[in-house]
What does this fold into?
Amino acid sequence: MNKFSAALNVHIEQVREWGQREVRPAGLEADRNGAPLPPDHPYFAGYVDFRRRHPGPVDDGAVPEGPAVRMAAINEENAYWDRGMGVAAPGPGLPAPIVAAAGTPEQREHFLGPFRGSEIPRWGSFALTEPSGGSDTTAFRTRATRTDRGFLLNGAKCFIGNAARADWVLVQANLDPDKGRSGQRSFFVERGNRGMTGIKVENKMGLRAYESVSFILEDCEVPRDNILGGERPEQTSRSSAYGATMGTLNTTRVGVAASAVGLARSAYDEALNFAKQSGAFRSIRVRDRLEAMHRQLRAAWLMTLRAAWKADSRIPNIVDASMAKVFAAETAQDLASAGMEIVGLEAGAGHHLVEKLFRDAKALNIVEGTGQIQRIIMARHLVGLPR
Amino acid sequence: MDFARGESDEIIAETIGRFAADELRPRLREFEAARTVGESVRERFAALGFEALDIAEEAGGAGLGLLARVRTNRLLAEADAGAALALDRFAPAIYVIEAFGGVEPLKSLGMNLGQSDLRFALVTDPGAGDVAGVRVAGHVAWIPAAPADVLVGLGPQGAWVLKDGFAFEPVRGAALHAAGASAVRFDGTPILAWHDPMRAARALARIRIYYASLIWGVLSDAAGFSRSYALDRVAFGKPIAHHQALAFLIVDMYVAVARLGLLIEDAAMAIDAGEGRAVGAAAAAFVDAIEASRFVGPNGVQILGGHGFMRDFPVEKAMRDCRALGLLAGGCDSAREDAGAGLAATISERIAA
Ligand SMILES: Cc1cc2nc3c(=O)[nH]c(=O)nc-3n(C[C@H](O)[C@H](O)[C@H](O)COP(=O)(O)OP(=O)(O)OC[C@H]3O[C@@H](n4cnc5c(N)ncnc54)[C@H](O)[C@@H]3O)c2cc1C
It folds into this structure.
């Protein structure tokens, strides 16, 4: 039930080897510097090369697991070494499946094409959240208005991953406020657009390895071809920007859960190793704690895998995915905190990995639907909580 | 039974509260970056006359007792727990000296607290308890302190005091940066040393309550700040505080802070009154502080959503500060051990009676 195929394990092993050698040290370096590694840092060129050599499992039948389980397995291993570096990794990122699902053929080619086989690091970015609110997607204030040449965007976005280094940022804006959230569309804002101003890289508690960027859109002109799905989305399938976005967030939820499990496993291992080396493992209190940590970790991982397996098996998994996301995120936080206690003053000194994990973990219960939002989703299904 | 506060308590609260709000809170990130509160803030605090608040009058302190100290600590830590530590040159190290030798040894060493500029620091040394003249040596990975003039070591069996033979080495520190962050290496001959497990336990009780009261302040602020934020922030057509999922969370956080405060004040009163249950009560309050930290700290951030994760808001600092404070005084497990032992003692006393 919960064993991976040998073929998938080969991929996990590649990520593990790369993670231990490159990702962990790079993540620690960024955290120490208090800033993401610059885009021209050799790490990123190395990553591109690693990905060219090891593209990861694809849909060619060589790996029997479905895409969701594969993603969970790879995300978990990646985040074990450093969640922040995982997000900082070059690539189109979160918008890729949205563009693939809702973009026109030309957009898929123009915006995703350069990433294929690229020898230089490139990033894509996805801007949904606004300073005035992230959970309530109906309240977004960024507006798009039509012009002769295309669109003008006005508004503000915040905490957007990789936005300052991205080739393009896929920005959510409302083109037709009268229609509420179904009036929302997505627009490619390409690098160098002068309407994207006030770019600020946020100073975060953790996950300092990737940039979270806030910016203002001030009469930001985008060409007509840059509206996702084209001007008349009714003609393409799944192209309501809102629908495509929400559909993607539903699938990536399991991916975030898996990352949280990876981070939690890292905290557990740090605590266990410390306890063994320091002799604290002899204390029944410490062993009890480690047992509880291990149990919680195992449950979170099984929950995540089941949600992924259901997705691959086309069994409705909304409750499972939300449950995994919230439980795994809270597990990461709990285990990092308990790990701090076991490691004690060494953790207080600020050099120990578990201290960094403690600062990194919190974001996982906030990004891509907060813990409260996940509970609301579950409650709608379990007890018919009204909207 | 009387939960009312006296007039002098109100005056202290008013003065300290104003100082914390005016002098500390607006500058918390500045102190954090500088790893000190700076001399001028320290002088202004000293001028208020609350520096050695709970130290015996004979030693140059104000002699107001631990209860006054915990209330003061709470108010200072609501603004910045690191700054609260930085502003206290004496405690909690001085509690050890008071518990073992009273104030006489201090005076005989020419240390009249009211008149000297000395700074004291405390480390845990499981080997403490040997007699004077025997060398002590060890290394402590982190204390939230800048270099001090006098180092006090405390272990379950006893304690020692070093005037030299120790070195502070700056470390990154997980939190509480305004107080500084140091690793301490010591290898020297104590000027004072005691062996007395009972007194060691009493000193530790005061120290635990001291740190617990700082946690109380941190959590009280995290709960209060996130509550006000939740009243201002609107999502889905109403303040987020009015969505039941957050409303109940906010209420539970309020309860956690309230129960912690009651346990801390109760233990402080027991210590001030020299009651037999004081050691167990202090250990239990410290455990409660750590458990409340695990709940209130991360949820303070959670209520602010993405903003909570950014250093523009104080809740991420609160989460780190309370976590770090809970690592001090021997940490959670040993406190739990002592709380349990205290319970056993109470039961056996009852049986004996
Ligand atoms: C490290 C990091 C990286 C991020 N990266 C990106 C990115 O790349 N792109 C992007 O678009 N965004 C990104 N975000 C933003 C993230 O998606 C939002 O922070 C998140 O959606 C929450 O929105 P908010 O911060 O505005 O909080 P709010 O929506 O204001 O929520 C505040 C609090 O209210 C609660 N709440 C809201 N509504 C309800 C309700 N109905 N019932 C009960 N409780 C409720 C929330 O759970 C939360 O606790 C990132 C955030 C972080 C921290």
